[in-house]
TrEMBL record:
<keyword id="KW-1133">Transmembrane helix</keyword>
<protein>
    <recommendedName>
        <fullName>DUF11 domain-containing protein</fullName>
    </recommendedName>
</protein>
<keyword id="KW-0812">Transmembrane</keyword>
<feature type="transmembrane region" description="Helical">
    <location>
        <begin position="69"/>
        <end position="93"/>
    </location>
</feature>
<keyword id="KW-0472">Membrane</keyword>
Length: 643
């Protein structure tokens, strides 16, 4: 590689600097020399190594001599520990004054099963196998629910206590107990025996417990239900419940409860129920005694639906109780609902509802429609309708193609009078009609009145063996009579509780005051939550005067609404008794534009309330009330018109 003249001169300069004698002149600094230091190095290190090996050998020899001594010390420690443990064991469990709960035994001697309602005898043996006596020994027996005293069956046994006192070492204490257990067959009952005691020289309380189980081999009562296995939907049927005592002693406070399930309607029972149509108080049941309960009701449901009716019998703790405290036995009856081969509907005033409401003195129009549910014809259908109730006007009953027997209030239709009933083919639906009126009972002493309609349809079909079968279907409906609640509004000048002023007839631009009277009457049934609402026109002013003071009346200045909170209106109010009345005063300043007119003092007035018997919401409405006070004798035509 060749360099130029300039490059060669620079290389020569660097070479001269490199070999210069005085580097400082060139700006190069040299590091200073380190100071010299003498180090004393040992030359006998090999002798130390030999000494360390000798020490190691000596320690090893000494360890071999000390090992047997350590082994002996360890063995001695183990022997001492084992001996101490054995000594503690014998001292605790075999010591002269030490008591162990393992040495306290509770033995129970008795049968493993007993009949319900029979006396259960048990023997309890408490044994003290300790070397010391047991102090302040207390025995407690806890019985299962439903246990009764063997000497007084009316007394429930919950627990018994027996103070045994001192039980010496090796002593056995015996106690006999007797009780009567109740419950369902196969039920397991558990009796708990508890023992508390102390030992001498200690304040601690020790405890021992043992449980004894006994099985009830039989119930003290047997139940049997007799009824149809299949019933037609809506057709009444009977259930018979037979109660038999298997006990050798009298059973007290016996109670029977029925659970009917969905779709069952209770009609009656013999004997009558004690509560809720499902509870019977049997009272005392002597040994071998039988009681029979008959229930009359009906089931409603779809074809082939299964329903279960259950009866439970047991005892109560007190004669006044309505709850079974000790169940003894339960039994159920399965019933299948079948659709009858003939069915019918009873329509009252166009309603298929079970209960219908009409006003006091109202009328009822009914239709009975029969349907054949078989694929074959049915024959000789007969229909009977019985109407009952004090509100029936027997002279008003009208029937088409039927026979009405007024003394019994029965309407009947037969195949002779109605050819459509002789043969009813599949799909046919012959109809029967009737009508009647209810009596106007306003002013009478009758209350909460209703009409009952009980319809029965009988028809025949031929079975597979060509033998005619008859079926009966029944249906019942009620028509409740609602109360006649009414409102009256009027204006007075002199007959009210307030003094009125101003010209009569009223004069334009001059104030005239009037008294407004509101009267409320009510006939058959009590009406609740009643109220009266009306409104004052803009040109009529509220004077703040109202009465009687016991009535609740208010005025809204913003809306002009007058509210009378009537509350309950008793049956017969205004019919043999004074009506409910309220009065308030208003002022009227007529305008010139009202000259020649009878101005409106209050707008439409509405009375609302709920009939407690029927549950219906009742309303009474009166139109506007003008300044015409024609109920007073001094009123003359034109006195209500502005001049």
């Amino acid at each position: 590689m060749e360099y130029g003249a300039d490059q060669k001169s620079k290389l020569l300069e660097r070479e001269e600097d490199l070999y210069a004698r005085d580097p400082g002149a060139l700006g190069i600094k040299r590091a200073p020399h380190l100071p010299e230091q003498k180090v004393d190095v040992r030359e006998d290190w090999q002798d130390d190594k030999e000494k360390a090996l000798a020490d190691k050998l000596r320690y090893k020899l000494l360890g071999m001599k000390e090992k047997p001594i350590a082994t002996l010390l360890l063995a001695f420690s183990l022997i001492f520990f084992f001996g101490a443990a054995v000594f503690a064991f014998f001292t605790f469990y075999r010591g002269a004054n030490v008591v162990s709960s393992e040495n306290v035994d509770i033995s129970i001697i008795g049968p493993v099963s007993v009949a319900g309602g029979e006396e259960l005898p048990l023997e309890i043996i408490v044994s003290n196998n300790n070397n010391a006596a047991l102090q302040s020994v207390a025995l407690e027996i806890t019985y299962p629910e439903g246990t009764r005293s063997s000497t007084d069956l009316t007394r429930e046994l919950i627990r018994e206590n027996d103070l045994l006192g001192v039980i010496a070492s090796g002593e056995n204490i015996k106690r006999q107990i007797r009780a009567v257990l109740y419950g369902e067959e196969g039920a397991k009952k558990e009796i708990t025996i508890s023992l508390e005691y102390r030992v001498e020289g200690s304040s601690a309380v020790f405890f021992k417990e043992k449980k004894y189980e006994v099985v009830l081999s039989s119930a003290p009562i047997s139940l049997a239900v007799d009824s149809l296995k299949e019933v037609n939907s809506g057709q009444p049927f009977d259930l018979s419940l037979t109660i038999s005592s298997n006990s050798t002693i009298t059973l007290s406070n016996v109670l029977v409860k029925a659970e009917y399930g969905f779709g069952f309607s209770f009609i009656s029972a013999n004997p009558q129920t004690s509560a809720n149509d499902s509870l019977w108080k049997i009272g005392d049941l002597r040994p071998g005694e039988k009681r029979i309960i008959k229930v009359h009701g009906k089931l409603e449901g779809q074809d082939d639906e299964d329903r279960i009716i259950r009866f439970t019998i047991g005892t109560t703790n007190t004669a006044l109780s309505k709850t079974i405290d000790v169940p003894l036995l339960s039994i159920s009856q399965d019933i299948t609902i079948k659709k009858p081969f003939v069915s019918f509907d009873l329509v009252l005033n166009g309603q298929l509802d079970k209960d219908v409401t009409i006003s006091d003195g109202g009328d009822v129009r009914g239709t009975i429609t029969i349907a054949n549910n078989l694929p074959t014809r049915i024959i000789d259908a007969e229909v009977e309708l019985k109407i009952s109730g004090d509100a029936l006007d027997k002279n008003s009953v009208m029937v088409t193609f039927g026979l009405y027997r007024a003394p019994e209030s029965i309407i009947s239709w037969g195949s002779r009078a109605v050819p459509d009933l002789a043969v009813i083919n599949p799909g046919d639906k012959p109809s029967l009609t009737f009508s009647l009126e209810a009596l106007n009972l306003s002013g009478s002493a009758l209350r909460n009145q209703e009409l009952t309609f009980e319809a029965t349809v009988k028809a025949k079909r031929f079975s597979e063996s060509r033998v005619p079968e008859e079926v009966t279907s029944t249906l019942s409906k009620k028509v409740k009579i609602s109360s006649n609640m009414s409102l009256r509004s009027r204006v007075v000048r002199q007959n009210g509780p307030f003094t009125n002023t101003g010209p009569i007839p009223p004069v334009a631009e001059q104030a005239t005051t009037y008294t407004i009277l509101l009267d409320v009457t009510n006939s058959l049934n009590t009406v609740s939550n009643a109220e009266v609402v009306t409104t004052l026109p803009d040109y009529v002013h509220w004077m703040g005067q109202f009465g009687p003071s016991a009535e609740k009346i208010s005025f809204n200045e913003t809306t002009g609404e007058v509210l009378w909170s009537v509350g309950d209106i008793k049956a017969g109010t205004g019919f043999g008794a004074s009506p409910r009345q309220v009065a308030f005063q208003v002022s009227f300043i007529p305008a010139t534009s009202q000259v020649g007119t009878a101005p409106i003092l209050i707008g439409p007035t509405t009375l609302r309330g709920t009939d407690r018997f029927t549950g219906d919401r009742l309303t009474s409405l009166v139109s506007e009330t003008t300044a015409k006070f024609d109920s007073e004798p001094n009123f003359k035509p034109g006195d209500d018109k502005v001049r």
